[in-house]
Design a protein that fits this description.
The chain is built from 10 helices and 4 strands; from the N terminus they run H-H-H-H-H-H-H-H-E-E-E-H-H-E. The chain is mostly helical.
Length: 230
């Protein structure tokens, strides 16, 4: 009788392959979509409240997640998508790049004394551009020239990139992922700028990343992927 209770609806015993298929992890499509929509349209889960300054990155992963699932346009209106793009542009820094969140924007109260508290952020800029592309934005409101002026100033002599530029000084660790963000931003900005702007030094960046990954860099501060966080 015990064997009978284990038989499938067709009257045959389940095979090892059937059991293996049941045990394999599967993407809960509807649940993932519901989760991303909650993050996008209501309140973020409590665990994320301490990441308010990283709001641009959270927005990227939420919108990108829905896009990868093919659920972004199905669950948002054209007006909502325009509003999302407007929010991204609201975080655009007047001197190029994007803020990580609107909380550092002093608006009319911005002065030379407090500008150090409101720098553009490299990962946030990468995420912002990605969001705009996902939303089908044409970059017509993008401060491209200012961003192209700002970006090379984040690259150090050893080829690594920092996270922000404060009073002309590069801030942040030398995590390789900052370099990837820098290269991604430059790629999305596109175009030949030789003769008009200083450009990022790609060859130096590549040598820096390779040296960090194999642990032979002459700079003890270069951090390979996974050793730090963006």
């Amino acid at each position: 009788m015990a064997i009978a209770t284990q038989m499938s609806g067709t009257g045959t015993l389940p095979t090892f392959a059937d059991q293996k298929a049941e045990d394999e992890p599967r993407l809960d499509f509807k649940r993932q979509t519901k989760y991303f929509l909650r993050c996008l349209k209501t309140y973020l889960p409590t665990a994320y409240t301490g990441n308010d300054s990283n709001r641009m990155s959270l927005a990227f992963f939420t919108i990108c997640g829905l896009d990868l699932l093919g659920q972004l346009e199905e669950n948002t209106t054209a007006e909502e998508r325009r509003d999302y793009a407007d929010w991204v542009y609201m975080n655009q820094h007047p001197k190029g790049g994007f803020r990580g969140f609107p909380g550092t924007d002093f608006g009319e109260r911005a002065t030379t004394d407090n500008e150090a508290w409101d720098p553009a952020n490299l990962p946030a800029t990468f995420f912002a551009l990605c969001i705009l592309l996902i939303l089908g934005d044409d970059f017509s409101r993008l401060k491209r020239r200012e961003c192209l002026d700002w970006l090379p100033k984040l690259q150090r002599e050893d080829g690594s990139f920092g996270e922000t530029l404060v009073d002309g000084v590069i801030q942040g660790s030398t995590d390789s992922r900052f370099g990837y963000c820098g290269a991604g931003v430059r790629y999305m900005l596109a175009g030949d700028i030789s003769g008009t702007h200083q450009d990022i030094r790609v060859d130096t960046l590549v040598r820096c990343i390779c040296a960090a990954e194999v642990g032979t860099s002459s700079s003890k501060s270069i951090i390979p992927i996974g050793a730090d966080t963006v």
